[in-house]
Design brief:
By secondary structure, this protein is α/β, with parallel strands linked by helices. It has two domains: 2-173 and 352-377, Glycogen Phosphorylase B (Rossmann fold), CATH 3.40.50; 179-345, Glycogen Phosphorylase B (Rossmann fold, 3-Layer(aba) Sandwich). The protein has helices at residues 2-8, 54-72, 87-100, 117-127, 129-136, 151-154, 159-162, 179-185, 205-217, 236-246, 261-267, 277-286, 301-311, 325-345, 354-377, and strands at residues 14-18, 32-36, 76-80, 105-111, 139-143, 165-167, 193-197, 225-229, 252-255, 270-273, 290-292, 316-317. A six-stranded parallel sheet has the order 9-8-7-10-11-12, sandwiched between helices. The chain has a four-stranded parallel sheet with strand order 3-4-5-6, with helices on one face. Strands 1-2 form a two-stranded parallel ribbon. The longest helix is centred in the C-terminal third of the chain and has 24 residues, at 354-377. It is globular and about 70 Å long.
Length: 381
C-alpha cells in the first residue's frame, strides 16, 4: 500500500510504524521509511521480546508514537492491526492524534475476514472495540469484497460505525522479476515448483513437518521441486529441526526467511500455505493453485477465509484434523498435475482493485480537507 501511494502521489511520504523484528530486512521504495517500536508480543521462541516490563514498554512506545505524530504531522493515520490488540494503547495514541492534529484522518484497515462472527462479536464487545471505532475512526477500510463477506452485518457493527466502512476489494500483489529466484531454483529442463509458506511462521510447524514427512516417505523422489519458507516467527528449535531434515532431501530449497517470497510465489505451480491474507492475495494476483492448511484456533480467521475461497473453487482446504503426510502429499501431487488449467479457469472472480480504491479514498479525503481549509480561510461578509 505504501509503495502504491508514493507511486500514485509523487509528493506523498509514508512512515511505517511497527514492532516487527525483521522490518529492516525488507526493501523500501522511495519516500517510504519505518520506525520500529519495542515489542510487546513474544518472539518466535516464546520469550518476551524485550527484558522490560510491560508498563515500561508501553510507555516507551507511547512516547515514540507521540514524537512521530508531532514531528511528521501526518494527514492520514492508517492502522492495520486487529482491533483487539492492545486496545488501550491504540485508544490513547488516537486520542493524541485528534488533539494534536485536528484535521488528520484516522483509518482502520482490516483484512477481508477476522474470524467467525460469534467469536468476533463476543470479543469485540468484551474488549470495548465498538466505542473506539465509533469515537476515533473516520473510515474503516475492509480489504475484501462485501458480496463475499459483509463485515458490517456479520460483526454487527452499530449503525454509526457501519456507515464508516468502505469495502476496497483485495490488494493486488506487484509485478516482480523472477530472474534471481529462477537462478537459485535451477533445474533444466524445468519441472513443476511447489512453494510452502507459513507467513510469519508462528503456526506453520505442523504443515512443514507433514510436508517433510511426505517427501521423506518418497525419499525425495517426486516429480516436482519444493521451496520451503518457514517464516521468521517460528520457534528457532523448530526451524532448526526442519532445516536439518530438509538438507538431506534433493530438489528442495529451504529458507527461514526470504525477501524474494513473491518471486518464488510468482514462479510456483502450486502454493501450500496456512491461509494468511497476504499469501492468498498473491495467489489471486498471480493466478496460482492453492492448498490451505489452517490451524484451528479461535476466531479461526484463516479457516473461515480458506473455506470461503474453497466455495468459489479458488482454493482447496486441507481440514486441520486431516493434516498428515499421506493426505497432504496426495493433494499436492494431484494439484501439481492439473494446476495450470485449474488456475486459469478461475481467474478474475475476485475484485482485486483494492490499492486503486485506497488511492481514490485518500484523494477524496484530501480534497475534502482542502475544501474545509479554504472555507475557513474565506473572508466573512
Amino acid at each position: 500500500m505504501a509503495a502504491y501511494l508514493t507511486e500514485r502521489f509523487k509528493d506523498c511520504s509514508v512512515i511505517l510504524v511497527t514492532d516487527l523484528p525483521i522490518i529492516g530486512r525488507f526493501r523500501f521504495p522511495s519516500n517510504v521509511d519505518y520506525v520500529r517500536l519495542p515489542g510487546l508480543a513474544s518472539n518466535g521462541d516464546g520469550n518476551a521480546a524485550t527484558s522490560l516490563d510491560r508498563a515500561s514498554t508501553l510507555k516507551i512506545r507511547r512516547k515514540m508514537l507521540q514524537g512521530i505524530v508531532r514531528t511528521f504531522r501526518p494527514q492520514f493515520v492508517v492502522l492495520e492491526r486487529d482491533p483487539l490488540n492492545f486496545t488501550e494503547e491504540v485508544e490513547r495514541i488516537l486520542t493524541f492524534v485528534h488533539e494534536e492534529l485536528n484535521e488528520a484522518k484516522v483509518i482502520w484497515a482490516l483484512p477481508d475476514v477476522l474470524g467467525e462472527p460469534e467469536s468476533i462479536v463476543a470479543s469485540w464487545t468484551a474488549g470495548g472495540v465498538y466505542p473506539v471505532l465509533d469515537a476515533l475512526c473516520d473510515e474503516i477500510w475492509v480489504h475484501g469484497d462485501q458480496a463475499l463477506f459483509d463485515q458490517a452485518r456479520h460483526y454487527r457493527l452499530p449503525e454509526r460505525v457501519a456507515a464508516k466502512v468502505v469495502y476496497t476489494g483485495y490488494l493486488r500483489s506487484p509485478r516482480v522479476s523472477t530472474v534471481s529466484v529462477q537462478r537459485k531454483i535451477g533445474s533444466q529442463p524445468r519441472i513443476p515448483l511447489v512453494l510452502l509458506t507459513a507467513g510469519g511462521g508462528a503456526a506453520g510447524y505442523p504443515l512443514m513437518n507433514s510436508y517433510l514427512d511426505f517427501l521423506e516417505g518418497r525419499r525425495g523422489q517426486v516429480p516436482f521441486r519444493s521451496v520451503i519458507v518457514t517464516g521468521p516467527l517460528m520457534r528457532s528449535v523448530d526451524k532448526q529441526r526442519l532445516k536439518t531434515r530438509a538438507e538431506r532431501l534433493s530438489r528442495l530449497t529451504f529458507h527461514r526467511f526470504s525477501r524474494h517470497l513473491l518471486e518464488y510465489l510468482s514462479c510456483a505451480d502450486l502454493v501450500v500455505s496456512t491461509g494468511g491474507y497476504n499469501t492468498l492475495c498473491a495467489n489471486l494476483s498471480y493466478h496460482k493453485p492453492a492448498i490451505v492448511a489452517p490451524r484451528v484456533r479461535p476466531p479461526n480467521e484463516r479457516l473461515l477465509r480458506g473455506r470461503m475461497f474453497e466455495r468459489l473453487g479458488i482454493t482447496q482446504v486441507l481440514d486441520p484434523v486431516e493434516l498428515g503426510s499421506e493426505r497432504l502429499g496426495e493433494m499436492v501431487t494431484k494439484t501439481v498435475l492439473v494446476g495450470e488449467a485449474w488456475a486459469n479457469g478461475h481467474a478474475g472472480i475476485i475484485p482485486m482493485e483494492g490499492l486503486e480504491q485506497v488511492g481514490t479514498r485518500i484523494e477524496a479525503l484530501a480534497s475534502a480537507m482542502d475544501g474545509v481549509r479554504q472555507s475557513k480561510a474565506a473572508p466573512r461578509r
